[in-house]
Design a protein that fits this description.
Number of domains: 2
Order of helices and strands: EEEEEEEEEHE
Oligomer: single chain
Number of helices: 1
Strand order of the largest sheet: 4-3-2-1-5-6
Strand content: over 45%
Helix content: under 10%
Mean pLDDT: 90
Structural class: mainly beta
Largest sheet: 6 strands, antiparallel
Low-confidence stretches: none
């Protein structure tokens, strides 16, 4: 089962934080981090809603978590050229899935296809770059 996790840029210092996403009753978005499962120590950070992205459940070639909004580069294992894409969650047209933007022309989900047949590496994100 995939870990449900979100990332967002903090309002106070513009640093990225990962954790559980929720909105307060006043619709202010927060990311809650859990530092100690036994003691239940948590911290809450107000985040810029435009920067919030969900973890795809996938790791790049370096073991880094791939989030919605990440910029990734992809290359087939026997090819020297890299192609750059961003990771997007598509929910329109009854297609609820993480995929590449622009979409890769293949018979399946482009992100899944790339993860299975290519090298994939995070090179930044759409908010910082």
């Amino acid at each position: 089962m995939r870990e449900i996790l979100f990332r967002g840029k903090r309002i106070d210092n513009k640093e990225w934080v990962e954790g559980f996403y929720f909105e307060s009753f006043t619709e202010i978005p927060y990311i809650m981090t859990l530092h100690d499962h036994i003691l239940g120590m948590t911290e809450f950070y107000e985040v810029d809603p435009a920067t919030v992205g969900q973890f795809t459940g996938l790791l790049d070639k370096n073991g880094k978590r791939i989030f919605e909004g990440d910029k990734i580069r992809i290359r087939e294992t026997e090819v020297d050229e890299w192609e750059v894409y961003s990771v997007k969650y598509y929910e329109e047209m009854d297609y609820p899935a993480f995929d590449t933007s622009p979409q890769i022309d293949c018979d399946s989900n482009g992100l899944s296809h790339a993860m299975a047949t290519c090298e994939v590496e995070i090179i930044g994100n759409i908010h910082d770059d």
